[in-house]
Amino acid sequence: MTRIKQIVYFVVGVINVLLALRFVFLALGASEASSFIRLVYGLSQPFVMPFLGIFGEPTLGASVFEWASLIAIAIYMLLAYGIARVIELAYSPRVTR
């Protein structure tokens, strides 16, 4: 049970790191000419897509404040916690009375 929960948290942690990098790079106006930036944007795009359009994205020059990335991070953290709790409940020993 513990190993499964660790795997869930690890996978969601990797997704959240990608989303956090995406947010920071967009906020700092990172150039898409860099292959690393394109890689981060490409890998994180499927995870941020469901949350695009919830709020506007204020821009200042090349900088973009992408609310969707922040919302996605919060939602995926909550989802990981919920999945871990369900796993814990499903595999915990049953109490008989």
Provide a compact summary of the structure.
This protein has 97 residues and is mainly alpha-helical. The chain has helices spanning 2-27, 35-48, 67-91, and strands at 59-60, 63-64.
- Give me the number of helical elements: 3
Task: Round the Cα radius of gyration to an integer and report it.
Answer: 17 Å
Q: Span between N and C termini?
A: 24 Å
As an assembly, this protein is single chain
Shape: elongated
How can the largest sheet be summarized?
2 strands, antiparallel
Which stretches of 5+ consecutive residues score pLDDT under 50? none
Q: Residue share in helices?
A: 55-70%
State the order of secondary-structure elements, H for helix, E for strand.
HHEEH
- Give the integer mean of the pLDDT values: 93
> What's the structural domain tally?
1
Instruction: Trace the largest sheet across and list its strands.
Output: 1-2
Number of strands: 2
Structure description:
It is built from three helices and two strands. The longest helix is centred in the N-terminal third of the chain and has 26 residues, at 2-27. With 97 residues, it is mainly alpha-helical. It has one domain (2-88). The mean pLDDT is 93. It is elongated and about 65 Å long. It has helices spanning 2-27, 35-48, 67-91, and strands at residues 59-60, 63-64.
